[in-house]
Amino acid sequence: MYQYILFDLDGTLTDPKEGITRSVQYALESFGIPENNMDKLEPFIGPPLRDSFREFYGIDGEDTEKAVVKFRERFEKTGIKENQIYPGIYDLLHELKEKGCMLAIASSKPQEFVHIVLKNFGIEDCFNVIVGSEKDGKRDTKIEVLEEALSQLRKKAGRRYKESKTLMVGDRKFDVEAARELGVDSVAVTYGYAPDGELEACNPTYTADSAEQLREVITGELSYQRYKDKRAFQKTCEVLLPLLVYWAVQLIVYNGLYVLTGRVFPEFFAGKQQLSVWLNAFAAIASWPVLAKFYQSSREGDTSHVITRRKRKIFKRDAVLVIAYAVALGMGLNILVAHFRVAELSETYVKVAGNQYSVPLLVGLVIYGLLTPFTEELLFRGIIYNRIRKYFPVHLTIVLSALIFGCYHGNIIQMLYAMVMGLALSLLYEYYDRLLTAPVLFHSSANLVVYLMTKGNAFGEKGPVLYGTVLLAVAAGISVWYIKCFQKKMKRR
Fold first, then answer.
1. Separation between Cα atoms, residue 53 and residue 61, nearest integer Å
2. Is 8 a known active-site residue?
3. pTM of the full structure
4. CATH number for the domain including 152?
5. What total number of domains does the chain contain?
6. C-alpha closest to that of 173 among 151, 141, 147, 149
7. Is 138 strand, coil or helix?
8. Residue 47 belongs to what domain range?
């Protein structure tokens, strides 16, 4: 566990985007430079202002000081209040203080502004040392700021100070490079305002995507280890409670509508298979409000809009790959099931399949290609996966969630199929960390293509085993790629 932790402020503890970018915009306007894209001004968050004005807008010499003065003209009055603390940071700082850690601030922001921000969020008392830059340009570079903070920290710690127990936390390359220059470890938080690729290029000791991951790096304690003393029965109940509630809602709505339909529209009972499909669909929709509440309590949201934007960008890049993965795995498994006539081993599977394909094509595509994937992903990845993740390491979480997803489907054929698909879905969810992107797209794509092919009897009585084998080989290759990417992501922590 690290005992001496130095924090950058902007982009690390607090999100100052609105205040800083609007103040930069105000300064640029004084030079006749209009800039309405606030995202373009994000690089000003973190490094010294003078460097940023010179680098990004070519404002040099005496004009640099004029730009800084204009920036501060607005920032001191308004911009400093346009700020918010990142989720989890307040609790983290107080927890570290209680554990006996010595905390310091090493910020490029003028020191008087640093004190104001810390007081506004009620965290000033957490820090033993607070160092910022000077308005006159002295102690302006990050390495000068960090050097002064370390010097004061050493004096306060005395003989017990150890460099090996010291850690610098920041969101930009300047924090990482200064820490390396002064011989201390660093952790780069990815929820800050570093441009794409900057943190990877500067090679920090660790990276963290959230306050919880930052806590893991500092304390050396993985999040699930905090619950090691909690009884297995309590964990099981918390994980399975949403599933039991979902079943209860399904049962009540299904049977209620069944009785109502039987009395009001008795002619519908001529097609009981189709009626069952419709009632299940309505029951699934009825469960959404309940599942949404469970989801909100089970899932930790993104720490910042930067993380959200980055994940969306990665998903857009990989969307076609996700669809190809789903089609290859879904069709490959179904071709082998058809070829070896595995379906004949389960009467329940034959009955379920008969119900599914009894409705018109368009209705089936909507229900099994859209409604079912959304509902099941909300329940199994959005809620159950996140609850398991709280208590177990990620690899075990992927396996356990896939097992529960398989058992939910009841009959042995669907159970085995769902377990395999569940492994892929959990891997995608962990990698992209967004429910309504990769998992839903994968699930929907697999269901749509399988439903279309089966409805059109494309698999025949005995599917072409060579095609199935090739498709599964493709799916296996994509799985290996995702696993390697995931392992690389985990190694950064």
1. 11
2. yes
3. 0.88
4. 3.40.50.1000
5. 3
6. 141
7. coil
8. 17-81
